[in-house]
Write a structure and sequence with these properties.
Layout lengths: L1 E11 L3 E4 L11 H8 L3 E4 L6 H16 L8 E5 L10 H9 L5 E5 L5 H14 L5 E9 L9 H4 L4 E12 L8 E9 L7 E3 L12 E3 L1 H22 L9 E4 L4 H10 L11 H4 L6 H11 L8 E8 L3 E8 L1
Parallel strand pairs: 4-5, 4-6, 11-12
Antiparallel strand pairs: 1-7, 2-3, 6-7, 8-13, 9-10, 12-13
Helix pairs in contact: 2-3, 6-7
This protein binds acetyl coenzyme *A.
């Protein structure tokens, strides 16, 4: 069986770290509220002039280095973002150029916080379909650029960053011991637009707009839909929650993560957690978490890893893989 295996991970976080206390004299909020309601303690914000493609290029280079590859070995780039440098070209093409790549394809995927899950499933299908041997899959965001800094219910929750993985075709023996992506489950329901959206865009206001969210409603959908999509993907792979070694969830909120793990019957020790240090970095949060866990050698070859995310759309999904 031809499978797509993650052979390298990398990430980049902007230098500037902002602690919860930074918001206390700007808004009617406290470190205590942010910490207990979201699990977030600090986040990184991109510097002025630092664009999504800059973060993404550094994460991609780190993933190439860890895989022992160079840009010339890559057939394509799929990049998930909702905060692109420009309306076009795709951020992926700027990363391509930044890496010195002059061949292959490069395009963006937009599924907000579920973007990396969608991009990874997309790249996996291309690899299994024979369109590519090696694909860089990246999640990169600068959500600080679309925050309403007067809205305490959103601006304290998000951060900037980028994560990347190298996804590579490998021929396995077809046994259950095969490494690589085993299954995916993707969903969207545009009827939920008003729960989470940005109130600007080129074809409407002509502005970038600001993020608007009905947090408590998103929360309720998240817990229910994330547990369901993870179960569906596991079932497709012929696995059960008991087989899972690591859950790598989208890092939006510690309470959503805990409730989802509980519904899946997973102890919190099996969950990779970065939300305290990164905040919600949207499409970047999962590849960031994968890279942090991989850098600490916590993921062992053969481990069953479930990744899952939900975001604006609503769009949600999961991918099951054997590390
Ligand atoms: N500091 C102090 N008080 C606050 C703050 C703040 N920063 N923000 C909101 N509050 C207040 C509210 O005004 C409200 O006050 P009220 O009761 O007087 O009206 C109170 O706290 C409770 O507000 P809720 O919204 O009900 O609080 P909740 O416990 O639901 O927590 C939160 C809010 C953290 C936003 C939560 O709902 C959440 O995490 N939702 C999910 C968000 C998410 O994960 N989005 C995911 C995808 S993001 C993407 O796709 C881009």
């Amino acid at each position: 069986t031809r499978r797509a295996v993650i052979t390298g991970t990398g990430h980049y976080l902007p230098e500037r770290v902002v602690e919860n206390s930074w918001f206390e004299d700007k808004l009617d909020t406290t470190d205590e509220w942010i910490r207990t309601r979201s699990g977030i303690e600090r986040r990184h914000f991109a510097a002025e002039g630092q664009a999504t493609s800059d973060l993404a290029t550094r994460a991609a280079q780190a993933a190439l280095d860890r895989a022992g590859l160079t840009a010339g070995d890559i057939d394509g780039i799929v990049l998930a973002t909702s905060t692109p440098d420009f309306t076009f070209p795709a951020v992926a093409t700027m990363v391509q150029s930044g890496l010195g790549m002059t061949r292959g394809f490069a395009y963006d995927v937009q599924a907000v916080c579920a973007g990396f899950v969608f991009a990874l499933a997309n790249a996996d299908a291309m690899i299994r379909g024979g369109l590519a041997e090696r694909v860089l899959v990246i999640g990169a965001e600068t959500f600080s650029r679309i925050m309403d800094w007067t809205d305490r219910s959103t601006c304290v929750l998000f951060g900037d960053g980028a994560g990347a993985v190298v996804l590579e075709a490998q021929e396995g023996a077809g046994t259950s011991g095969d490494r690589g992506i085993l299954s995916s489950d993707l969903n969207s329901d545009g009827a939920y637009r008003d729960l989470l959206y940005v109130d600007g865009g080129v074809s409407t206001t002509g502005t970038a707009g600001h993020l608007r969210m009905q947090g408590n409603l998103v929360f309720r959908h998240a817990v229910e839909k994330l547990a369901r999509t993870a179960h569906t993907a596991l079932e497709k792979a012929g696995l059960a929650p008991g087989d899972v070694d690591w859950l790598v969830p989208h890092q939006a909120n510690m309470r959503i993560i805990t409730a989802t793990a509980q519904r899946m019957g997973l102890p919190i020790e099996k969950v990779v957690l970065t939300v305290a240090d990164h905040g919600n970095t949207s499409a970047a949060s999962i590849p960031l978490a994968l890279s942090v866990a991989d850098g600490e050698d916590r993921l062992k070859p053969g481990d069953v890893v479930v990744i899952e995310a939900i975001g604006g759309g609503l769009s949600w999904g999961s991918v099951v893989l054997r590390w």
